[in-house]
Amino acid sequence: MARKTGAKTHTHKYHYINLGFGSAWSCALGDCTHYMPPYGNGRIDKRMVGRITRCFGCDNEIHLTEDLLKMDQPTCSACQIAMQQEIRDLNSGIITPKKEETKPIDWSFLQ
Ligand SMILES: [Zn+2]
Ligand SMILES: [Zn+2]
């Protein structure tokens, strides 16, 4: 596996997580260790506004806004609408959780 040290080889997928020394916006992508040092800027970090990130729903590139920074895992507006719709449907019973079809096991092959 090639080890990429450059942090700018991809569009970072920012999420807000606790890194041990505090919470910070960091990249969620596997081999990327990029994060924004908090410096006491907190969650709604002005330096983050306008940066490009990847939507946690559809992976499209989106620009971060102060509203998106309120989410731990920013998603684009389309995904937010879809998620809200899904929650509404779940609550109203339109979507019923799928029941696993369980077939009785046929042990006859053992005999
Ligand atoms: Zn990254
Ligand atoms: Zn999306």
Structural overview:
- The protein has one helix at residues 77-92, and strands spanning 14-18, 23-27, 52-54, 61-63.
- It has one domain (14-94).
- The mean pLDDT is 86.
- The strands form two sheets. It has a two-stranded antiparallel ribbon with strand order 1-2.
- The chain is built from one helix and four strands, in the order ββββα.
- The longest helix is centred in the last third of the chain and has 16 residues, at 77-92.
- Bound molecules: zinc ion (ZN) (2 copies).
- One zinc ion is lined by residues 55, 57-58, 60, 75-76, 78-79.
Structure in a nutshell:
The protein is α+β, with helices and mostly antiparallel strands. It is built from one helix and four strands. The chain starts with 13 loop residues before the first strand and ends in a 19-residue tail after the last helix.
Detail the topology: elements first, then pairings:
Elements: E1 14-18, E2 23-27, E3 52-54, E4 61-63, H1 77-92
Antiparallel strand pairs: 1-2, 3-4
Bound molecules: zinc ion (ZN) (2 copies).
One zinc ion binds at residues 55, 57-58, 60, 75-76, 78-79.
Which consecutive residue ranges, at least 5 long each, have pLDDT under 50? Answer: none
Overall mean confidence score, pLDDT: 86
Structural class: alpha+beta
Helicity range: 10-25%
The count of β-strands is: 4
